[in-house]
Prior knowledge:
Strand content: under 5%
Shape: globular
CATH superfamily: UbiA prenyltransferase
Number of domains: 1
Number of helices: 16
CATH topology: Tetracycline Repressor, domain 2
CATH class: Mainly Alpha
CATH architecture: Orthogonal Bundle
Helix content: over 70%
Radius of gyration: 19 Å
Largest sheet: none
Number of strands: 0
Amino acid sequence: MEGVRILTTATPQHTHILRKGPLFLDAIRFHESIFALPFAYMGMVLAADGFPGWRTFAWITVAMVSARTVGMAANRIIDKDIDGRNPRAAARHLPSGLLKVNEMTVMTVIAFAIFMFAASQLNTLALILAPVATAYLVFYPFTKRFTWAANLLLGWALAMSPSAAWIGVTGSLSLQPVLLSLAVALWAGSFDILYHTQDREFHLQEGLNSVASRFGIRNAFRLARSLDVMALLSLVTLGIWMDLAWPFFIGCAVAVGLLSYKYRMVSPTDLSRMGLAFGRINAYTSTTMLIATIAAISV
């Protein structure tokens, strides 16, 4: 970690930028890491058939948080001008001037250095694949410029986490974590489709792409429901395949209830509670499945 410390203290400019750390964390919605981390931990405990030890746990956590930081920061930089024209996003830190692009860039480079170091502390395969994961995270924000499937591709940005954690534990990859990643991709794609129904008119005005702008809000809700159903079926299939104990399936049942409640909070004609549905239900769902997985392994 010495290389990172040198980078962050080399010049007064870097010191000034680091003082804006709290603003940076707020800009990338650091608190939303809870969405992806539980599924990463699911991959971790399933790979280890229990707790893999504090060292592995710590480096997987650092790797996941820093990778998400790189992805979110890159998204903010790449979409700065678009966000500035979007009434819903104009108050974000870059378009509003609270942070400058060079400040966000320095923080992104630091996060990437931390990510690479964390991957190196896990195993060789994790280190080899870390730049590939980073490239995808940086590429994703551009997809809304040319394909309505951008919402689905966001799902795969989050879906890498359980397979990456599995690799972090075992140094290899099998089909079981890929199925878990599929479940996460479907679940995350679903909520991204719903979340961007708020921006349909803006996307149409700007020539940007999303499921809602291409197919309409009602059809976006229909597709989101279908993806949620497939995500839950994928989780149940994983539980059967890995012969997990009954608490895992109780967790799946609770997830059904949570996702059903989400569709009572928002509808094609009422998007007013989308932020609440996005923030709480996603966190509750992923945390529920983590707790159920740990319980299933512990029984």
